[in-house]
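Recall that a protein's primary structure is simply its ordered list of amino acids. Everything else, from secondary elements to tertiary packing, is in principle encoded there. The following example makes that idea concrete.
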Amino acid sequence: MEMIPNRQVAAEMLADRLEHYKGQKGVVLAIPRGGVPVAAPIAQRLSMPLDVIVSKKIGHPANPEFAIGAVSLEDVEVDKRADVPAAYIQAEVERLKESLCQQYRLFMGNRQPVDLRDRIVIIVDDGIATGKTLLSTVNMARNKQPRKIIVAVPVAPLTAIQQFEAIVDEVVYLLAPPMFQAVGQFYEEFEQVSDAEVIHLLRQRYDSQV
């Protein structure tokens, strides 16, 4: 079975395939936490700002694990088919947005999110499992009217690759194995990424731009 050594090697390999975007008006958006160590070297290689996009799912009141929508700092997505009271949705959105604001401040300090309008947006994660988080991220990014949306991931099931190829401008990936169970099974090293590591990588990239 083909394996990826670690997130850092994956980042360099993806950056090779994205090199032609270097110097263009773009932004690399990482899905924390695991996406940040992959996104940071890509942003550096392409001379683009690095930002995180934080989002949380809205769980069904009868089954919190079942997602009926998603919330980011600025956007809300709700499945129209979900027969759920509006008051529940509103309360969950307010609760989740407060949590997301705290998370974004933890990672980015007082910096404002990068304006995505008319930019090439490269959304990066360390892999795709169900694809639900990435799908909501793509939809939320699209609302900001970017010039182009690219998804860059080291590994994903072929079905997910095909799903995203149908809705974004480009999908860049390293592996699309047929027997897919979890992202971590295709990495030789797949350690948990801490908040401290995320903060360090984001600040390092920001400081190099200032």
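The chain has a mean pLDDT of 93. The longest strand covers residues 63-72.
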